[in-house]
Amino acid sequence: MFEIKLPLWTxxxxxxxxxxxGLASVKCAELNTNHDSIDLDTCYSNFRCKIKAYYDLxxxxxxxxxxxQFPDFELQxxxxxxxxxxxxxYVFSLMLYFSCIRHPIPYFQxxxxxxxxxxxxxxxxxxxxxxxxxxNQIVINRSFLDKAFHNAKxxxxxxxxxxCNRRDVSQQMITSTPxxxxxxxxxxxxxxxxxxxxxxxxxxxxxxxxxxxxxxNQDRQIERLLQNVKELQEEKKMYLSxxxxxxxxxxxACGNNxxxxxxxxxxxxxQLQKQLESKEKDIEMLQEELSKLKESIVTEMxxxxxxxxxxxxxxxxxxxxxxxxxxxxxxxxxxxTCNQNLFEIVKDLRRFIxxxxxxxxxxxxxxxxxxxxxxxxxxxxxxxxxxxxxxENLASTVVDIKLKEKExxxxxxxxKTQELEDNLKATVEDLNRQLESQKTIHLKxxxxxxxEINEKTSKLRQAxxxxxxxxxxxxxxxxxxxxxxEDLNRQLKEQKCLETELNEKIAQLRQALVEAEKxxxxxxxxxxxxxxxxxxxxxQLESQKxxxxxxNERLQAEMNQxxxxxxxxxxxxxxxxxxxx
Length: 581
Hints:
coiled coil; elongated; mainly alpha; Substrate Binding Domain Of Dnak, Chain:A, Domain 2; 12 helices
């Protein structure tokens, strides 16, 4: 027989019941080769070998087995990419369900028959939770397993070998006697008060274990909250980097001539930055609350350790009181044996006296029968009779004196035993009062710790929910801002295209004007020579000017229409921003 060491502080109060049954099944099935610790990989390899004849498992590792066979189970791995030791109870329970219900294997089903009745009841209650009553498919995850652990009936009168050995040793200490006194008395039986004290100590130990498990669960919740805060900070950094990239793109895309159009995305980015700053402040507040909560937990743990030390001191005092009580019991038993011996001596002396009185009476009978014989022999036997009666009176007085001495000694011994019994009762009552007071103090401290931790965790959860809501709103605002930025970029591109077209047309007009000026100069130079052609040229110039003016007016009208359209679009975007705010 061996004992697998699984830290019970990693389990909740109702998981310890199924943990003992699961570990017992692992021990009986010979899945673990190491007697000191648990190796899940070796357990799974041995599990595959045991069921190979009935079912072929294709998964080579325990992680693959859980992911494939139980996809709804939330598998959590540590930094070494392994299953933590605290989840060993979940793994063993799923292996037990897989080999007993999903794929019934006689080897594992027969193991449960070797257990005690309490173990069997706990295992059957646990496995019945996997049977669907309505015919619906059961989702096997952590919450379902916790409910199954909770539904398992608590088994009583089942102790581990270590606890049994401790109980035997303590029982042996209580009932043991020195080697020289074994032949004088029998071992004294345990009293109901000692049994009640033992049960009180066991209950206090159970309360301490539950307090430890609850503190560890609260530490895990705090770690999860810290992880969520870190994730929020990383997301914040990511959004900040995206905003910086958008700002750079916006600054690169926007030119110096389009300051009015670039003000809108700048305002959006400023608003986003303000929102991010507010989120940073919220995260800092959460971090401060977490640090305060950690400090309070440290102080509460120190208080808990001090209470535990006081409990250990009380246990030592209790042990010393038990040893003193055992010594008093031994002394009382020795005094009882002495009293018994004295009673026997007194009985022997009384019997001896009664026999002597009977013999004296028998000697007096022949003297009373014959008065004449008494008269005749009185003279001859007077001296002998006087000597005999003197010796008899002397012996009776000596015996009476011894009897009185023995009676006095017996009375003193009875008084002493009564005093010892009174002292023993007083010490036991003091010990009971101390245990009750310590139990009440410990329960009050535990309730206070539970209330404080639950209040702080509820506050942190509420803060995280609000932070997640604000994060979702921030993502929505960022998405809207991105869409607006894309619209603005598209409008800027269209504006740039229009500007390029206008510049080309203006260049063409300028070139035409330059050519016209050249022609005008030529006409002026050749005015004297070509007066006859002046009118024609002037008419041509006027017509050309009219054409250019019409073209300029048309282009100006087109530009005015497009600018009004752009202004209308910008006004609509500003209205949308105001409504979104």
